[in-house]
Amino acid sequence: MKKEIEELTLLLLYLTSWKEEDIPETMRRSWKGHSFDALNQLMDQDYLRGGIKSKSVYLTEAGIEEAKRLIEKYFAGEMTGE
Q1: Which residues contact 80 (CB under 8 A, 6 or more apart)?
Q2: Which range marks the domain in which residue 31 is found?
């Protein structure tokens, strides 16, 4: 269950993320109102970056790619109408 929580946390972070002008093109920003355990695990995997005191995180290029893979995993049937 822990893995699924991490996956769904990353997926939610990606789906609610936005692009900002002052960060690299390959990163996106999202509010971090999720389980700190899950956020810490995602940071350890270099899917996220951000300070402990900040209210938001940056999704790295690897995090964005993993989130896109998770969209396929969790919503493949939804997107094809199955």
Answers
A1: none
A2: 2-80
